[in-house]
TrEMBL record:
Upper lineage: Bacteria, Bacillati, Actinomycetota, Actinomycetes, Kitasatosporales
Name recorded for this polypeptide: Sugar-binding protein
Domain of life: Bacteria
Pfam families xref list: SBP_bac_1
Transmembrane segments: none
Length: 448
């Protein structure tokens, strides 16, 4: 169990970090080739008998390999008149290879992506099949996935992807031993969180671990605070291309709350030199030097691999608290809803591609994800989670996402090429190099 989960944690995290570091930029900039081959006879240049699916070639690919093998033997494949060929692309090569392929006659018919900003350029170039009507008219696809996850990969309210990997919500982790020793409970409101911070600092314990040198862990704080203050509509406006959305009062208030946390020592005084990537932040947390850690769901797998005793005995988890006076629903979630299959609009066999997408909603596919340590986003997954490496943790994640009215995609992934300059402004805010007002003004200048 340990090795499987650790492996899952490693590749889940690396997938998040690679994209956060700017892989979406490769997908959304410098794409003249995307408009050069629009009149081609079909994706892959085939006759429709076999279609090609590009997939990110990490440890989780074994689930997609099994899915393709199962589908190719199915009645659905025979009825659609073809089979699927899976092409595994190494992680570091995935984004540039997909970008190049999508502007050529050998483009994949179906391809793995992160939703949101990662596929915007393809949609704008007419390279994506709009799946909205297909999903709405097909019970398997319409009812097969958690609604918040299905919607999270959308572009302007239209479906261009089908969920095909596990969920990755951002969770408030805490050290159960530290909390028990100091008679604390996980905070359900922001005021409670601030009160806990004060008690921990009096005990010379840093309230929160934070890998500030990577910057993307800092982003999680703004994502949740903006959502709790103003609801998902605030960022949705920004994601849809309206840079003036950064001027929403919820963004300024969230930035002010971040500054208050930093100034109050909630992250200690060295967090800007601590990294998550090299294991620094997880170690600070596991060794009791910090009592809490706001991080993606892969934190459990990371801790199980690096500090198994801590993960099994002392690691607790909770939802991000309510912010008093905010209009966002406390059940809302932020993070990486999942990864998606999208379909090339030029595929010569649309029926085959759609039939293949349905396999991602199957119980067999969900079981394979669970065996790998992932939590599926299918609507029928709850009854299967008893076989997860940690059923309690898996059910917490699933219930959290199932009950969420909205699941906001990580801002850097949703914004594509603007994610990197946004990271720069977030880093300056947390490091005290810009004020909340300056942060808002700078973000309003982030335009294509």
């Amino acid at each position: 169990m340990g090795s499987t989960t650790s492996s899952a944690g490693g590749r889940t995290f690396s997938r998040r970090w690679i994209l956060g570091a700017g892989a979406t930029t490769l997908l959304t900039t410098g794409l003249p080739g995307l408009t050069a081959c629009g009149s081609g006879s079909g994706a892959g240049g085939g006759d429709g008998g076999t279609i090609t699916a590009f997939v990110y070639g990490d440890d989780a690919v074994k689930v997609q390999e099994a899915g393709v093998a199962r589908f190719n033997k199915s009645a659905a494949a025979k009825e659609a008149g073809g089979t699927v060929k899976l092409e595994k692309v190494p992680g570091s090569d995935y984004s540039p290879k997909l970008r190049t392929a999508m502007g050529s006659p050998s483009a994949p018919d179906v391809f793995f992506n992160w939703g949101g900003g990662s596929i915007r350029a393809y949609e704008e170039a007419g390279k994506l099949l709009d799946l909205t009507d297909t999903i709405n008219n097909d019970p398997v696809l319409k009812d097969g996935f958690l609604p918040s996850v299905l919607a999270a990969g959308d572009l302007k309210g239209r479906h261009y992807g089908i969920p095909m990997r596990g969920m990755q919500p951002v969770i408030l982790f805490y050290n159960k031993s530290v909390f028990a020793e100091h008679k604390l409970e996980p905070p359900t409101t922001w005021d409670q969180l601030l009160d806990i911070n004060a008690k921990l600092k009096r005990a010379n314990i840093t309230p929160f671990a934070l890998g500030g040198s990577d910057i993307w862990p800092e982003l999680m704080w703004l994502e949740y605070l903006v959502d709790r203050l103003g609801g998902p509509e605030v960022f949705q406006r920004i994601q849809d291309g309206d840079a003036e959305g950064w001027g929403d009062p919820a963004v300024l208030k969230a930035a002010e709350m971040v500054k208050e946390l930093v100034d109050d020592g909630a992250f200690g005084d060295k967090f800007t030199s601590v990294s998550y990537v090299n294991g620094g932040a997880p170690a600070v947390f596991a060794r009791g030097r910090a009592a809490m850690h706001l991080m993606g769901s892969w934190e459990y797998s990371t801790q199980l691999g690096k500090f198994p005793d801590f993960a099994k005995q002392h690691l607790g988890w909770a939802a991000f608290p309510e912010v008093e006076g905010g209009t966002g629903d406390v059940r809302n979630v932020v993070g990486n809803p999942t990864n998606y299959w999208s379909v090339n609009s030029r595929t010569p066999n649309k029926d085959l591609a759609i039939a293949f997408l349905k396999d991602a909603a199957s119980e067999a596919y969900a079981k394979d994800l669970i065996d790998l340590g992932d939590v599926p986003t299918t609507s029928n997954a709850a009854q299967l989670l008893d076989s997860a490496p940690n059923p309690e943790y898996a059910k917490f994640q699933y219930d959290m996402v199932q009950q969420a009215p909205a699941f906001t995609l990580s801002w850097d992934q949703a914004l594509g090429e603007l994610g990197t300059p946004m990271h720069t402004e977030i880093g300056k805010l947390f490091a005290g190099k810009s004020s909340p007002t300056e942060f808002v003004a700078a973000c309003k200048e982030l335009k294509k």
